UniProtKB/TrEMBL annotation:
This is Fis family transcriptional regulator. It comes from the Bacteria. Residues 9-123 form the Response regulatory domain. It comes from Chondromyces crocatus. Keywords: ATP-binding, DNA-binding, Nucleotide-binding, Phosphoprotein, Transcription, Transcription regulation, Two-component regulatory system.
Length: 450
């Protein structure tokens, strides 16, 4: 009997149905789950309708023969092991089926034990390929602790919350501006959780139109819509036993939000065009740069879904709030960029360049910092990068309004900071001009910006 938690399900097809039933009954007696069918079309319908672990097919059959069935089955389920049965006079066709992807062929007549040997080997190899892919995805998705820079108090606070909830399965909502590192923290959460051996699957909810996103998330049956020529399991199924990261969840259309809520509450998915529901075991991590409560008030986001996602909320701070992390981030990004571009001239940053990078407000956050360092390495003409090489754009601090005497009373320190930032934006980001207009030196202006 196969040593597996679930009996492998095998479809046996032979136009002589008595032969197929005899083999199927023998497989069931030896611990398999098996079904016998008489045509290739029936076998393909089984493969497209439910999970099938292996196919055993005769080669010479009326209608869809074994070679045609092999091709159709592998389109529907690329990893499906296929064993073909052939009469002695059709060995050449059997060999051709091997070239087309069959695992093995058996010449009739053969013993049941012979079929079981090759079937078990094929199933073991298929499981090994799946486990290898899962491990590869897991390793790619993991963000080891030393990949995260958290010298600043704000980043340490975010990381502390992440690490306290790693061991649970509660949904986590990551909030913060674009480019701040929400995806990195999501991968760290997965890597440190009990689901680390499962898949970490990411989908950007803003990148796909509603119908396509629905199909990507929940899967679809064959013929569910124009172009759906095969069955697709969907990302929930792909993330089974692991983590599904829903990036930019605030951009999801309300009708799709309702379906997502149902999946979270009942832990089942129904692929498009299917009447069957499939249970799923997935941890949800969502991220957004939007104010979801404001989106709820505007009628753009479901309040009940927000409550389901916002079990644990983690605010990922913008880079301007974690300036203590910038030197270490610069060092890391410089090392990585030089590794990617070994022929580049730049080896280090000059003190003046470092000062410029430390003083810049980074509206694009960590992502902008990484791209800036990459540009420095690619375009620099000397071993030591100079300030002009950075070519930083003028900062646009959309969340730094001009000061106004309304609302709560501010401390003088906060009022000074807001005014200095507003003046800097008004003067195109030029610190020297801003300091002159404000009647202070550049060092004092920089201090007000921290």
């Amino acid at each position: 009997m196969p040593d597996r938690a679930r009996a492998p399900h095998v479809v046996v097809v032979d136009d002589k149905i008595a032969m197929a039933e005899m083999l199927a009954d023998g497989l069931v007696d030896r611990g398999f789950s098996a079904v016998a069918v008489a045509t290739g079309a029936q076998a393909l319908a089984q493969i497209e309708a439910e999970p099938v672990d292996a196919l055993v097919t005769d080669l010479r059959m009326p209608g869809m023969d074994g070679v045609e069935l092999l091709a159709a089955a592998r389109r529907a389920a690329p990893d499906l092991p296929v064993i073909v049965m052939t009469a002695y006079g059709a060995v050449d066709t059997a060999i051709e089926s091997i070239r087309r992807g069959a695992y093995h062929y058996l010449t009739k007549p053969f013993k049941l034990d012979e079929l079981i040997v090759y079937l078990s080997r094929a199933l073991d190899e298929a499981n090994l390929r799946r486990e290898t892919r899962t491990l590869r995805r897991s390793l790619q998705g993991q963000a080891p602790r030393d990949r995260i820079v958290a010298r600043s108090a704000s980043m340490r606070a975010a990381l502390d919350v992440i690490e306290r909830v790693c061991g649970s399965d509660v949904p986590v909502l990551l909030t913060g501006p674009t480019g701040a590192g929400k995806g990195l923290l999501a991968r760290h959460l997965h890597a440190e959780s009990g689901r680390a051996n499962g898949s970490f699957v990411t989908v950007n909810c803003a990148a796909l139109p509603e119908p396509l996103l629905e199909s990507e998330l929940f899967g679809h049956a064959k013929g569910a819509f124009t172009g759906a020529s095969t069955r697709r399991p969907g990302l929930f199924a792909e993330a089974e036993g692991g983590t599904l990261f829903l990036d930019e969840i605030g951009e999801m259309a309300p009708p799709l939000q309702a379906k997502l809520l149902d999946v979270i509450e009942r832990r089942v998915v129904r692929p498009l065009g299917s009447v069957k529901e499939l249970s799923v075991d997935v941890r949800i991590v969502a991220a957004t740069h939007r104010d979801l409560r404001r989106r709820v008030a505007e009628g753009l986001f479901r309040e009940d879904l927000l409550y389901r996602l916002d079990v644990v909320a983690v605010r990922v701070p913008p880079l301007r709030e974690r300036r203590e992390d910038i030197p270490e981030l610069l060092e890391r990004f410089l090392s990585e960029a030089r590794t990617r571009h070994p022929s580049a001239c730049v080896q280090r940053l000059s003190p003046a360049c470092m000062t410029q990078l430390l003083d810049y407000p980074w509206p694009g956050n960590v992502r902008e910092l990484a791209h800036t360092v990459e540009r420095l390495v690619l375009l620099g003409r000397t071993p030591e990068a100079q300030p002009p090489d950075a070519a930083l754009p003028h900062p646009v601090l959309a969340d730094t309004p001009a000061p106004e005497f309304a609302g709560p009373v501010l401390t003088l320190r906060e009022l000074q900071q807001r005014y200095v930032r507003w003046a800097l934006v008004e003067l195109g980001g030029n610190k020297t001009r801003a300091a002159e207009r404000l009647g202070i030196d550049v060092k004092t202006l920089t201090k007000y910006l921290l």
